[in-house]
Amino acid sequence: MKRIFTGLIVAIYSLASLNNAQAQNFEQVVNSGVADANTYLENYMNPVATSIGNGLANGWYNTAKPHKTLGFDLTFNINMATIPDAAKTFEFVAAEYENITLDDPSNNELPTFIGSSTNQELVISGNREIAAGQSVSYEERIGAPDGIFGDLDYPGPLAIPTPTVQLGVGIVKNTDLIIRYTPQINIGDFSFQSFGFGVKHDFKQWIPGMKLLPFDLSGIVGFNKLSTNYQIDESQGQFAEFGASATTIQAIISKKLLFFTPYAGLGVNIVRSNFAMKGDYTFNEGEPSEVTVTDPIDLTFDGSGGPRFTVGARVKILWVLALNVDYTIQKYNTLSVGLGLNIR
Predict the structure, then answer these.
(1) Confidence (pLDDT) at 34
(2) pLDDT, tens digit, for every residue of 76-94?
(3) What percentage of the chain reaches a pLDDT higher than 70?
(4) Sign of the alpha-carbon dihedral angle for 314, 171, 227, 330
(5) What is the CATH number of domain 2-343?
(6) Where are the domains of the chain?
(7) CA 9/CA 189 separation, integer angstroms
(8) Other C-beta atoms within 10 Å of 86: how many?
């Protein structure tokens, strides 16, 4: 079972490995019931999924000015969506669970994946079949899963880097077509791929008198999706998959000043992530209470999008090379740094 829960982490960017005690605790959480396991794991993994989703939404532009026809840029960005301190814990709401309660209900703050350790215990109770038509009540206590930092209270902001590579090409009427693409990359049992596309259009040209003003004004719509797959046990058809998508809609303004171009954007994000474990998994193997569960985990992380405001600047460092840095204020504030080849 340890490979299952190591897979859960590997599928979300290989962040860490669980030790044997942690893996056993997660196994018992799943064994408490599929509904309870999904509720607990959604809370536990939410900061990771949200950070990756918000990171995908960034890096679409570094100027409001589109390319001339067949002009292009090839840009590599690193986007880091900062996880707020409040996301290091989540509130355990007893009414959301059927078979899990807290040993100490007065302390209902539990660590998320990016949190620290806890002394809180989960009480798992229910009925267990011991023979055909016979069952007994049971109650077990396990340590609530710790965060990856254990006893270390990690200081300062934490962010998960989300890289993007994109090609922007000028087509017609001051419009850029933007493509993001990473082919499937396989590393052992782990695979990763992503795809995205966007359109940037200068709408100042359509407003009488505005095209004479000394700045560029455009709108952009971008969609990006990534998917990962981790083979837990290929012979048994067991695998884990994580996916995230982000839609970005923004108005952009910029002003070129020789080799320096400040820019700003205002708009919204729509972010969605999901995690699932597929296949058949057997719990309490060899015991009278042995049970096999199909596709035990299916998590959806919504609600992490919303309004966003970006401010940044691009600096030409060579004739065709440019460095851009920007900061986006949103639910998970995001720093983006990019380097691009730019042919106008």
Answers:
(1) 79
(2) 999 999 998 889 999 999 9
(3) 85
(4) positive
(5) 2.40.128
(6) 2-343
(7) 13
(8) 9
Alpha-carbon span 104 to 109, nearest angstrom: 11
Query: For residue 193, what are its two tokens?
Result: 């791929």
Q: What is the pLDDT of residue 7?
A: 42
pLDDT digits (tens, 9 = 90+) for 259-278: 999 999 999 999 999 988 89
Give the C-alpha separation, 321 to 143, whole Å. Answer: 53
Q: What is the pTM of this model?
A: 0.85
d(CA 76, CA 204): 28
DSSP character at residue 257: B
Quick check: helix, strand or coil at residue 67?
coil
Side chain identity, residue 116: S
* pLDDT surpasses 80 at 155: no
Output phi, psi for 25, to 5 deg: -65, -45
Confidence of residue 20 (pLDDT cuts 50, 70, 90): very low
**How many angstroms separate the Cα of 120 from the Cα of each of 87, 109, 110, 136, 210?**
18, 9, 8, 26, 62
Assess whether pLDDT exceeds 60 at residue 171.
yes
Quick check: helix, strand or coil at residue 311? strand
Q: Are 174 and 206 in contact (CB under 8 A)?
A: no
Strand partners, 337: 78, 325
Give the angle subtended at the CA of 86 by the CAs of 81 and 90, to the nearest 5°: 110
Instruction: Provide CB contacts within 8 A for 99, sequence distance 6+.
Output: 32, 33, 36, 124, 125, 126
Burial of 141 (0-12, 13-18, 19+ CB in 10 A): exposed
Rounded CA separation 83/180 (Å): 25
132's CB contacts (< 8 A; 6+ apart) are none
Nearest to 301 by CA among 34, 54, 17, 10: 54
pLDDT confidence of 15, banded at 50, 70, 90?
very low
Residue 131 has pLDDT above 70, yes or no: no
Q: Is the torsion defined by CA of 252, 256, 257, 258 positive or negative?
A: positive
Phi/psi for 20 (5° steps) reads -60, -40
